[in-house]
Specification:
The structure holds two protein chains of two kinds.
Chain A lengths: L27 H5 L4 H29 L10 H37 L7 H23 L13 H4 L4 H28 L12 H33 L12 H35 L6 H14 L15 H29 L8 H24 L1 H7 L3 H31 L5 H27 L14 H28 L65
Chain B lengths: L1 H7 L8 H32 L16 H30 L6 E8 L2 E5 L5 E3 L1 E5 L4 E7 L4 E5 L4 E5 L5 E5 L5 E7 L12 E6 L1 H10 L2 H5 L2 H11 L2 H4 L19 E3 L5 E3 L2 H9 L22 H13 L2
Helix pairs in contact in B: 2-3, 6-9, 8-9
Classes of the chains: A mainly alpha, B alpha+beta.
The structure holds copper (II) ion (2 copies).
One copper (II) ion (CU) binds next to loops of chain B.
Chain lengths: 560, 313
């Protein structure tokens, strides 16, 4: 083990940057039929970014409508559709696939030192199922829309007009793409780790992806069945959830949250996955508490199945059930807290540099902490009676979903962008955009905690005058947030016009993906990856011989 | 801390509110503590350990059992405390005192109907006496709704084909806002109601006289309201169709035959008598199922019914 890096066994670099997975082979057909995990990841990336754009525009429109207590720019019906679509698009089309399917597909096999995922064709199938689901979803939006909220609560959803059946069917289809990605990742992690890589030498990203995949595979079918039952009730009038037909509306909520609470972890655990990579890399220091972080991901994934009833403290479930769910819910706080403390401890005595991805990681630490801590309010049953279905909840889950997952996604996107496309973006613009997003996000959602605590219910088109100032503040915040996001898009896209300029390892990362060229060749590695050191090993004797030249734009043959 | 309470929470309008607020403020403190800890440490580390050169070497610290146990157990103890506190408040909010006045609530798109023990009904407005516990037994006619009174800190979903409950004991006189907090479609955000809390005297006065708007309302209009809200409409139609009871259309001035063979003209006295002692003269062809409204209708409401029936030509 005297050697330091995974030195290429035959260190003859036959490739230069222009021969890479993006360009070889060329042509649209080669993309549409590709089984390369990197290409599929990139195709997912464009698709989810389009969804993010649509969902984001809906969000901005919703916020504009809320500038005044009565009608501002749209009717109540349109408003109800807007927020429903915002939720449905963001959850099903953007956040759930964002990190696993786009970034994970790209990075996971690279990080494991694998040539591809275990089932490359299944991977492509998962992408096409996603596309079909997305098209169905968009058809539903254009042809009638939905006004049920993304939660589809019965009996409202079994009776209202619009394209509810089509939209739920779209979500049903999307579920399969999620399941397939999950199966693929589980198999890949079990089978395709590089020689020498034990479970405890995997990058933590992979641990979290594993945990996520387990939830995807186990929980998503329940959503599928629930949505099918809903469609059956709507079309054939079989009484399942609708009391008029002898059904039980609360049953729907149980089914729905049995999936959708774990889905919260399908969304946040991948965010944590990215943070566990960013913090050690930009602190140039070994991760603190590797096993604690790894197992806390698993713990969160498993606990996530036992707490769904915390969405239903006032929904008519038994008091005993509520009590148990509240009790179990508080346990989720522990692994989440453990992670935050471990990340902080990783920064302690590190060598911290604040490049754009690290700024996102620090934003995540702060915003996710707020999201998690405000969860404590909602876990307390007596306090939840007051806060349930108010803006407090809206703010809470946006801090987790957006302040957590989306911020981590952006961090990961900036982190792997040079690897994905071989170009560096403008660092300063990246930082400014991150700062704008941070400020805009807090301006949008902090006031909503106050709104909710003061009793402002969610999903309200009209509201009492007393709430207007805070609503306005929130809307102004959303504009800053929007501006920041557009800057990110501009900055990243602009970099694509440049020639390849990204070094192999721009950040000094220690995982496999940084050892291959940027962008990687089709088969990922121009050498045989063999594990020589742990994923976060920054001991000087383990580092490349020429200290400080962690990130050379290495000439061919000179792998250090 | 009181200024903060007032800034961030609604007024405390019920006996339940204080405990919920204390819990809320306590978690706020806990959260602030942890947030400041995380943010402070992050800021400190970013500053103190900022990268000074590319060759910096960092210590290889992989874990520290003591630390890890500490930051697992301290939060664990804390959150268990939070659980029990929340549990305590929750159970208080579940169990209404036995002597509570019971009011039936029916929710439908997009209105709240309240029915008092004596059968009196009001729409989107509930009057309750100060300092007396009230129990609401709620059900919905169409979809889910949720009954939420921020200043009382109570909320519960209202479900079709099922009865759910909330209870409260108001501690502040005045008007309290009721919201629907389960999304129910187009009019969801307009599905509002008011709870008027007043001292025993004004409450009794309201029971007898109705509220200001009722006092100034033309009699015939008040009569129509009684027909709508006090159950007459379930048995009496206005358009001549026969229901469980006779239609009121054009009856004023007619002479009606009774089951016992007697007959009488429909005038003010007859209508009053039909309300107070309905069994005395049962209209021919109908069953004597009409309940008595003795003591349940306000004097002005009885006059209103008479005037209203007069207008139905
Ligand atoms: Cu949940
Ligand atoms: Cu509603």
């Amino acid at each position: 083990m005297a050697d330091v890096l995974a030195v290429p066994l035959h260190a003859t670099h036959k490739h230069d940057a222009s021969d890479n997975y993006l360009t070889n082979p060329r042509g649209l057909k080669s993309w549409l039929t590709t089984v390369d995990h990197k290409r599929i990841g990139i195709m997912y990336l464009w698709a989810i970014l389009a969804a993010f754009l649509i969902g984001g525009v809906f969000a901005l429109l919703v916020r504009i409508e809320l500038l005044t207590p009565k009608t501002t720019i749209m009717s109540a019906e349109t408003y109800n559709k807007m927020f429903s679509l915002h939720g449905a698009v963001m959850v099903f089309l953007f956040i759930i696939p964002s990190i696993p399917a786009a970034l994970g597909n790209f990075a996971l096999p690279l990080m494991l030192g694998a040539k591809d995922v275990a089932f490359p064709r299944l991977n492509l199938l998962s992408y096409y199922i996603y596309v079909v689901g997305a098209i169905l979803g968009i058809t539903a939006m254009v042809g009638g829309g939905i006004d049920t909220g993304w939660t589809f609560y019965t009996p409202y959803s079994s009776t209202t007009g619009g394209a509810v059946s089509l939209m739920t069917f779209a979500a049903f289809v999307l579920g399969f793409s999620s399941i397939f990605t999950g199966i693929n990742f589980i198999a890949t992690i079990h089978k395709l780790r590089a020689p020498g890589m034990t479970w405890y030498q995997m990058p933590l990203f992979c641990w979290s992806m594993y945990a996520t995949a387990v939830i995807q595979v186990l929980a998503t079918p329940v959503l599928g069945i629930t949505l099918l039952l809903l469609i059956m009730e709507r079309t054939f009038h079989i009484g399942i959830f609708d009391p008029k037909l002898g059904g039980d509306p609360v049953l729907f909520q149980h089914f729905f949250w049995f999936y959708s609470h774990p889905a919260v972890y399908i969304m946040i655990v991948p965010g944590m996955a990215i943070i566990s990579e960013l913090i050690p890399t930009f602190s140039k220091k070994s991760i603190f508490g590797y096993k604690a972080i790894g197992f806390s991901s698993i713990a969160i994934a498993l606990l996530g199945f036992l707490v769904w009833g915390h969405h239903m403290f006032v929904a008519g479930q038994s008091q005993l059930a509520s009590t148990l769910f509240s009790f179990l819910t508080f346990f989720v706080a522990i692994p989440s807290g453990v992670k935050v403390f471990n990340w902080l401890a990783t920064m302690y005595r590190g060598s911290i540099s604040l490049e754009t991805p690290m700024l996102y990681a620090i934003s995540f630490l702060l915003l996710f902490s707020i999201g998690g801590l405000t969860g404590l309010f909602l876990g307390m049953m007596s306090v939840d009676i007051h806060l349930h279905d108010t803006y407090f909840v809206v703010a809470h889950f946006h801090y987790v979903m957006m302040g957590g997952t989306v911020i981590a996604f952006l961090g990961g996107l900036h982190y792997w962008w040079p690897k994905m496309f071989g170009r560096m973006y403008n660092e300063n613009l990246g930082r400014i955009a991150c700062a704008l997003i941070f400020v805009g996000f807090n301006a949008t959602f902090l006031p909503q905690f106050v709104l909710g605590s003061r009793g402002m219910p969610r999903r309200y088109y009209n509201y009492l005058e007393q709430f207007q100032p805070l609503h306005q503040f929130s809307t102004f915040g959303s504009w800053i947030l929007g501006l920041g996001l557009f800057m990110v898009a501009g900055n990243l896209l602009a970099s694509l016009r440049k020639p390849y300029d990204a070094p192999r390892n721009p950040w000094g990362g220690r995982t496999f993906e940084w050892e291959t060229q940027s962008p990687p060749i089709t088969h990922n590695f121009d050498f045989d990856p063999v594990l020589k050191h742990g994923p976060y090993d920054y001991r000087p004797e383990k580092l490349p011989p020429r200290p400080g030249v962690l990130s050379p734009a290495r000439p061919a043959g000179g792998h250090s | 801390m009181n200024w903060f309470r007032q800034l961030i929470l609604p007024i405390e309008g019920s006996t339940l509110a204080r405990d919920v607020d204390n819990a809320y403020l306590f978690v706020t403190l806990v959260s602030l503590f942890f947030f400041v800890l995380v943010a402070g440490l992050a800021a400190l580390f970013v500053w103190r350990y900022r990268r000074r050169g590319p060759n910096e070497i960092t210590p290889h610290i992989t874990h520290n059992l003591g630390l890890e146990v500490t930051w697992t157990t301290i939060p664990l103890v804390l959150v268990m405390g939070l659980f029990f506190w929340g549990f305590y408040g929750f159970m208080r909010a579940q169990i209404a005192p036995g002597e509570a006045m019971e009011v039936q609530v029916t929710a439908k798109k997009w209105q709240w109907q309240f029915e008092y023990p004596d059968g009196m009904r009001t729409l989107n407005e509930l009057h309750v006496p100060l300092g007396k516990p009230v129990r609401l037994v709620m059900t919905a006619e169409d979809v889910l709704h949720s009954f939420y009174v921020p200043s009382f800190r109570v909320k519960h979903d209202v479900i079709p084909n099922r009865y759910t409950e909330v209870w409260f004991e108001p501690t502040k006189a005045g008007t309290h806002q009721v919201f629907c907090t389960e999304y129910c479609g187009k009019g969801h955000s307009d599905m509002l109601a008011k709870i008027v809390v007043e001292d025993e005297q004004s409450y009794q006065k309201w029971l007898i006289e109705g509220d200001e708007s009722m006092k100034s309302m033309p009699l015939a209009e008040l009569g129509k309201l009684v027909w709508e809200n006090r159950g007459c409409s379930t048995c009496h139609a206005l358009d001549g169709t026969r229901g469980q009871g006779p239609s009121w259309k054009g009856i004023f001035g007619q002479t009606h035959k009774f089951a016992d063979g007697a007959s009488a003209p429909v005038d003010a006295n007859y209508i009053r008598e039909s309300l107070m002692e309905p069994q005395k003269h049962v209209v021919q062809g109908f069953e004597g199922i009409m309940p008595t409204y003795q003591g349940l209708l306000r004097p002005r409401e009885v006059l209103g019914v008479i005037e209203f029936i007069k207008t139905l030509k």
